[in-house]
Amino acid sequence: MRPANKLKLSFAIFILLCLFSYLDRPFPNSKTVYDSVPLPATTESNLQASFEFLSADKKNAQSWSLPDYINSVTAEHPQKTGAYILENGFEALLARAWLADHATKSIEVQYFIWSNDNIGTLASEALIRAANRGVKVRVIVDDLLIEAEDKTILALAKHPNVEIRIYNPKHRVGTNIGKRLWNIVADFKSANQRMHDKTFVVDGLVAITGGRNMASEYFNFHHESNFRDRDLLILGSAVTKVGDNFNNFWQHPLSVPVETIFAEHRFMQASPEISNQEVANIYQQLHAYANLDSNFDPLLKQAIRSIPESFERLSKEIVWTDVEFIHDIPGKNRSADLQGGGDSTRALATLVDQAQQEILIQSPYLVLSDKAIAMIKRSLERGVKITINTNSLASTDNLQAFSGYRNQREELLKMGVKIFEFRPDAGSRGKLLNSPVIDKYKPAVFSLHAKSMVIDNKIAYVGTFNFDPRSENLNTEVGVIIHNQQLAEQLVQAIKQDIQPGNSWNAELDDPDQHVSYSKRFQVWLMQLLPLRPIL
Asked: Where is the PLD phosphodiesterase domain (predicted)?
């Protein structure tokens, strides 16, 4: 990138940051979702008492062991990985909740977003309950979109069985707005390099990865807007590699213990000290929040309790096959500019270059680099049919990313790429958005967030990779490549259902932009004028 363009880019981002940091998401120290929960009466002032309080509902007499069952199943399929696609958000939530409740040794979670909303709060409480059973809990969260109050993060990390590390902490945790802006100006590349990984590993035996972050809208629990997303549950051989990748990030200097962050930035903020009484209060508030039926619906609790009866049925639906877990190194690459690619980028590019008949892509954000466009052209010249499902202007949650796509849409259509843009009122909402919460409210807006690809109806990818320059060059990504025709065809069926006329508009024929206001179209037009492409 020429210095002049880099200067323009930096200035544009500086202005956008000043605007969107106030309009988009709250800074740390905003109130948490459970602040209004009445605090149970307590006179205890030590941590042990608060742990015992939260351990009151633990089950000491479990006759069924998750590790024993998984070990017995995987023993029947040596060197293979069992895979099960989690299409429905409610199902994906149940799987995580039940696995957390049945963990015996360890829970390792890695997320880009961990919200302080209903689901984020319930997830935090579930991890504390697991820790009270003696389960070792390790959490890595990217710094950019953390919403929790600083003291809440510190309180969670105070548990003797819980460790929390923040990836590349240059934006939120322990950082005021002045320091944040300085980080962007002084080290633009590093400040933009984020950990987009999303993995959930229990006892080193079972893992979930895919597009879902830890927030209500990813699990059908938001009252107004939810994501059509996708995860993959895996058992067996590939789980070890997921755990190895977690450890690589855990041990890397970019993943910083929360205690270290606050100690190093003590002079820039109010005292980060937290008393044992405050820790006990926060734990009790979490537990009280989770015990309210208005927050943790009884139907959800019953569904979690019912999982053991259906787990053996589910395990029979798992497909055992060859699976490749792909990932990036911490930091993505060693390039000094905004390029450089990564291991996940190269793995997916190899799949595209190997395609002989058809490529089917589902990505919420579609902004192609020059290299990606050249790769698409080569595939089309080989006679490969390319179909892409992405968000429409009416459904997108990211106007900046849509502006980049809008700059390329006509070019892609003229090249011969078939593009279908997701509708916010997709007819599939009824099937994919069923949950105890959503069923009580009017239909929520539906937005695409699944990141998947199928090659020649026989190789499938499910992961975190968006088809944009940010995933290509800046953010670390993970995903699973499945060499199995049965699962590939299952994924094809799901994506082709999403591009049906009732669920998506044909970008070439339907003029999807007409369904939004002139003001929204004007906002996107202004963004199209900015040199944002390298960081979209």
From this structure: 191-218, 444-471
pLDDT digits (tens, 9 = 90+) for 407-446: 999 999 999 999 999 999 998 876 766 655 555 555 668 8
**Is 502 in contact with 427 (CB distance < 8 Å)?**
yes
Distance CA 147, CA 118 (A): 12
Q: What's phi and psi for 326, nearest 5 deg?
A: -110, 150
Rounded Cα distance, 187 and 340, in Å: 16
How high is the pLDDT of residue 23?
38
For 121-269, strand residue ranges (E) read: 136-142, 162-167, 199-202, 206-210, 225-228, 231-236, 255-257
Dihedral, CA of residue 60, residue 62, residue 63 and residue 68, to nearest 10: -110
The amino acid sitting at 201 is: V
Query: Which of 153, 121, 139 has the alpha carbon at shortest distance from 29?
Result: 153
Q: Where do the structural domains in the chain lie, given as residue ranges? A: 26-316, 324-535
Strands 445-448 and 452-455: unpaired
Residue 186: is its pLDDT beyond 60? yes
| pLDDT digit string, tens, across residues 451-478 | 999 999 999 999 999 999 999 999 999 9
Range 324-535 classified under CATH 3.30.870.10:
yes
Report the CATH architecture of 26-316.
2-Layer Sandwich (3.30)
